Amino acid sequence: MSKLRDKLTARLAAGGKGLIVYLAAGYPDLAATRRAALAAAEAGADIIEIGIPFSDPIADGPVIQQAATVALQGGLKPADALGLVADLTAASPVPVALMLYINTILQYGPARFAAAAAAAGAAGLIVPDLPLEEAAPLQDTCRSHGLDLIQFIAPTSPPDRIARISSQAGGFLYCVSTTGVTGVQTVDYSRLAPLIADARRASGIPIAIGFGIGSPEAAVAAAAHADAVIVGSAVIERLTAGGPEGVRSLVASIRQALDEAGERS
User: Fold this and answer.
1) Which residues does UniProt mark as catalytic (predicted)?
2) Distances from the Cα of 85 to the Cαs of 88, 128, 217, 250, in angstroms?
């Protein structure tokens, strides 16, 4: 069973597209992260992605880097993030995935971390600096604890590598829209169509596009080529400017735009 895959598949079966919302644990503090995550869930997010801040976040752009810095300066520890996940999964049926870097898992201990994540109610792990060639041990550990280990494809991934990655993916396949780091930017999502077609031929797993999506219009453009969209930096910006209710407003506007696009198609 995969809570992540099942949630996205149910949304697709109803004629819609999935919406995955990222928040950094501990930004601006744990209480605010909790309120923002629950607001996002109530506004229509299908999956909440909780980031565990790390001092060298190589996949993250300046907005998420700054959020991570604030959280770390506030004393956030991985155990605090796991406690947040437990709180969220007790309060809402929306699945939660953890986004973190491999060093955090290694320092915690892979088996210990997977067990703790599963006990907290997490549905999967997203580890952007773990390549497929080094993923097998953690993949096995995750499977033994009922967790999905999310895999990534990118515009630079050749077809044979996409096939290998897709065959090992769990939950959903994370399609990075552009090379570089996270952050709101203008992206021609149509150029991802061949990449996504290759992934679909290799696996029936839902495909989510992330990086660059910052508005309802961008979400609709990306969703035209995939099964779900991932919104992160724009959510952090809205949390900074408008608090949890600002997050609710942004997520609701994206949910509405995705739903209306689905009705037109």
Assistant:
1) 49, 60
2) 5, 19, 30, 22
Catalytic-labelled residue, pool 46, 60, 227, 237: 60
Q: Which residue has the higher pLDDT, 265 or 47?
A: 47
The one catalytic residue in 6, 42, 49, 188 is: 49
- Fold for domain 3-260? TIM Barrel (3.20.20)
Where do the domains of the chain lie? Answer: 3-260
Active site residue 56: no
Select from 198, 204, 131, 121 the least CA-distant residue to 170: 204
Q: pLDDT (tens digit, 9 = 90+) per residue, 106-148?
A: 999 999 999 999 999 999 999 999 999 999 999 999 999 999 9
Is residue 1 classed as helix, strand or coil in its secondary structure? coil
Query: Is the overall model pTM greater than 0.90, yes or no?
Result: yes
